[in-house]
UniProtKB/TrEMBL annotation, chain A:
Subcellular localization(s) per the UniProt record: Cell membrane
Main location: membrane
InterPro entries membership: ABC_BtuC-like, ABC_transptr_permease_BtuC
PANTHER family recorded: FE(3+) DICITRATE TRANSPORT SYSTEM PERMEASE PROTEIN FECC-RELATED, FERRIC ENTEROBACTIN TRANSPORT SYSTEM PERMEASE PROTEIN
UniProt GO molecular function: transmembrane transporter activity
Species of the source: Glycomyces sambucus
Stated name of the protein: Iron complex transport system permease protein
UniProt keyword annotations, A-Z: Cell membrane, Membrane, Transmembrane, Transmembrane helix, Transport
Similarity comment: family membership: Belongs to the binding-protein-dependent transport system permease family. FecCD subfamily.
Membrane-spanning ranges: 30-54, 74-94, 106-127, 133-152, 159-177, 207-230, 251-273, 293-314, 321-339
UniProtKB/TrEMBL annotation, chain B:
One annotated GO molecular function: transmembrane transporter activity
Similarity section: Belongs to the binding-protein-dependent transport system permease family. FecCD subfamily.
Subcellular location: Cell membrane
Any one biological process term the GO annotation gives: siderophore-iron import into cell
Domain of life: Bacteria
Protein name per UniProt: Iron complex transport system permease protein
Listed InterPro entries: ABC_BtuC-like (IPR037294), ABC_transptr_permease_BtuC (IPR000522)
UniProt entry keywords in alphabetical sequence: Cell membrane, Membrane, Transmembrane, Transmembrane helix, Transport
Coiled coil: none
SUPFAM superfamilies: ABC transporter involved in vitamin B12 uptake, BtuC
Membrane association type: Multi-pass membrane protein
TM region(s), chain numbering: 39-60, 96-113, 125-144, 151-171, 177-200, 221-243, 269-297, 309-329, 335-356
Pfam families: FecCD
Length: 347, 363
């Protein structure tokens, strides 16, 4: 695992804590994630005892609880793991590349771009199945990322707030266009309805397989650019003098970001604020070193997503709240707190 | 009534002589009340009114039963009976009137808020007031199952409460424009989730009604709603007109305004109340129609070439835009769409352009 390999060569640039403590923290994050995975399988409209969960995995039988676990809760948990990981790393990437503490694929309209493209694929081209429309999601995510980067760059460099506004505006336009398309095509609307809210429900594992190899590539890319991104945090000129190839780093980072955000949207629909919160928590825990931030994000983001999903199942039993709604409720206050800090300047 | 034009290039002002404002002004004096209007603004408003009237006739002509302009005009004058009268006056006119009145309200609301926050990006749709109104109205629809008046009240309360919350959350040694906007974005994200959740929780039938309404549509607007909404909006527009002088002075800064005799705190409170109430009234009647309040004041400012945001041209531009957007949504789209979908696409594109040119120059 890339995260574990990094433990040994992590430099001591951040004075928050030593590599040993950070590695311990990483282990704790892993344990937390495992606990949440187990809870996610146990908790639902009915709570299933851990022993039954164990039996379902080891001694399959035609029991209703086992059926619920194998056919519903396990796939849902797996989707949560994959999507959470993608969202967290995408958030860390977009914050590092734009040096913007308010950056989030959801706020920046990347999810909206992907979901608009998917609507076009389903409604106009009649594409069905994730393997078909994920390419549209990637294209949409890429186009919006580039557009927002261009719109948000002022002459005096990049202003975090202008970039947020650019993202919100692009997101609003594409959201409106998506609504319009869906309203003109009732069949597409029906197919997309459950997907638009951003949820982990009803996504069979078949949906995940085609995206998984691309996620793996994106993760490798993301960890490969963490070193150059560290140097770029000092400013473009200093980074250049350290031998960082700025254009190549940005292109690779945006490519990884596109794959992660587009793929996550293709699987689960738009889920906001996970990519905003997790890198901040990671940065707060481990300091400014991007390698550690990325490693922590890989583990913390699925934890957050699973926790939000579990919460969504508990609050309104026996019905559920889609996880995208829960993350917005938890995440928006984080955005408010970030803006209220002394200054919402660049990272 | 005495009307006079001034275009004096006086270098010094003797008592009784007119001040040179650098622009042609039209002064209307009647029974002790004097109103000084900028000649260009008056012309622009008149032209916009003409364009809106033309657009209205076009909208009244178009539909599955096509009518000629002569038929429409004579139906409006009361000269037609039977089917043509029914189509024009009973079916199509409420919608056209609603588009004009609501559009004017949205334009004026945007002008008030943009002037108050001194920011061209302040829009009730972006900073969450619209979503708040929608939340209030949704609670009335889904939980209380209330009447139209309760719906209006709910939308009003929701909008006000959101405005208050955004203002308080953004307050930190004064309110800085951009912080307020990002706080508003966060609050509106939360409220949107709350709205989705409320719709999910409701019965299917209520949820369908709420969802159709949520896109912002003028479908099924009745004469009653237009009359009630129109009355409320007229009162609010008059209030806004009365407040336009302190509004203009407060654009110079609170201290400068206070030194010129404006009581800043009450004036600001009233302006917020009027601005939010205008949006909330529209939201209660038609659902959230976003981005008109963002676009209209800026277009109006460019047309009238005023240095500040002017109220009346913004209202006229809003009316014309809303009617045009509704026409596009109804007749030019492949299937009839809610007008809110059209305004969000057009307005969002405009916002992108605005960011691209103006905001980046100033930041």
């Amino acid at each position: 695992m890339a995260a574990l390999a990094l433990r040994h060569d992590g430099p001591d640039t951040a004075a928050v804590s030593g590599p040993r403590r950070r590695a311990l923290g990483l282990t704790a994050a892993l344990v937390l994630l495992l606990v949440l995975v187990v809870l996610s399988v146990m908790i639902g409209s009915t709570t299933i005892a851990p022993t039954v969960v164990w039996d379902a995995l080891v001694h399959p039988a035609a029991d209703i609880d086992q059926f619920a676990i194998r056919d519903y809760r396990l796939p849902r948990t797996a989707v949560g793991l994959v999507v959470g990981m993608a969202l967290g790393v995408a958030g860390a990437l977009i914050q590092a590349v734009t040096r913007n503490p308010l950056a989030d694929p959801g706020i920046f309209g990347v999810h909206a771009g992907a979901s608009f493209a998917v609507t076009v694929a389903v409604g106009v081209f009649g594409v069905s199945g994730v393997a078909g429309y994920m390419w549209f999601a990637f294209a949409g995510a890429l186009a919006v990322t580039l557009l927002v980067l261009a719109l948000g760059s002022t002459r005096r460099g990049r202003s975090p707030v202008v970039m947020v506004l650019a993202g919100v505006c692009v997101g609003a336009v594409l959201g409106g266009a998506r609504d319009g398309l869906q309203l003109t095509d009732p069949d597409a609307f029906d197919a997309m309805r459950s997907w638009v809210a951003g949820s982990l429900v009803g996504r069979p594992l078949d949906v995940v397989w085609p995206v998984l190899p691309l996620f793996a590539i994106a993760l490798v890319l993301a960890f490969a650019v963490t070193g150059p991104l560290n140097a770029m945090a000092l400013g473009d000129d200093l980074a250049k003098s350290h031998g960082v190839r700025l254009v190549r780093t940005r292109v690779l980072a945006v490519a990884a970001l596109t794959l992660l955000a587009g793929g996550a949207t293709a699987i689960a629909g738009p889920i906001g604020f996970v990519g905003l919160m997790v890198p901040h928590v990671a940065r707060w825990l481990v300091g400014p070193d991007q390698r550690w931030i990325f490693a922590y994000s890989v583990l913390l983001a699925p934890s957050l997503l699973l926790a939000a999903d579990i919460l969504g199942r508990i609050v309104m039993r026996p019905s559920e709240i889609p996880v995208g709604i829960v993350t917005a409720f938890v995440g928006a206050p984080v955005l408010l707190a970030l803006v209220r800090r002394k200054k919402a300047s660049g990272l | 009534m005495s009307t006079s034009f001034t275009h004096a290039r006086a270098t010094q002002t003797a008592p009784g002589e007119r001040v040179d404002f650098g622009r042609r002004v039209l002064v209307v004096r009647r029974r002790g009340i004097a109103v000084r209007l900028e000649w260009r603004s008056v012309l622009v408003c008149a032209a916009l009114a003409l364009a809106a009237a033309g657009m209205a006739v076009l909208a009244l002509m178009t539909g599955s039963y096509r009518l000629g302009p002569d038929q429409v005009l004579s139906a409006l004058a009361g000269g037609e009976t039977g089917l043509v009268h029914d189509i024009v006056v009973e079916w199509r006119l409420p919608r056209v009137a609603a588009a004009l009145v609501f559009g004017a309200a949205l334009g004026a609301s945007g002008a008030v808020l943009q002037s108050l926050l001194r920011n061209p990006l302040a829009d009730p749709g972006i900073i969450g007031f619209t979503q708040g109104s929608y939340t209030g109205a949704l609670i009335v629809i889904l939980v209380v199952n209330g009447t139209y008046w309760q719906l209006v009240g709910g939308a009003l309360l929701g909008g006000m409460a959101t405005a208050l919350a955004v203002y308080v959350l953004a307050y930190k040694q004064g309110v800085q424009g951009f912080r307020l906007i990002v706080v508003g974005i966060g609050v509106s994200a939360m409220l949107e989730s709350l709205n989705i959740w409320l719709v999910l929780k409701a019965d299917l039938e209520q949820a369908m009604a709420a969802a159709a309404w949520g896109a912002g549509s003028l479908n099924g607007v009745s004469w009653d709603q237009v009359a009630i909404g129109g009355a409320a909006i007229t009162v609010l527009l008059l209030l806004a007109g009365l407040l336009s002088r302190p509004m203009r002075q407060m654009e110079l800064g609170d201290d400068a305004a206070a030194s010129q005799g404006v009581r800043v705190a009450p004036a600001r409170l009233w302006l917020i109340v009027v601005g939010v109430a205008l949006t909330a009234t529209v939201t209660a009647a038609s659902g959230p129609i976003v981005f008109i309040s963002l676009v209209a004041p800026q277009i109006a400012r460019r047309l009238a070439r005023t240095a500040r945001i002017a109220l009346a041209p913004a209202a006229f531009v809003g009316a014309l835009l809303c009617l045009a957007a509704d026409y596009i949504a109804q007749h030019l789209a492949p299937t009839p769409l809610p007008v809110g979908v059209v305004t969000v696409v057009l307005g969002g594109g405009y916002l992108g352009w605005l960011l691209f040119t103006e905001a980046r120059r100033r930041l």
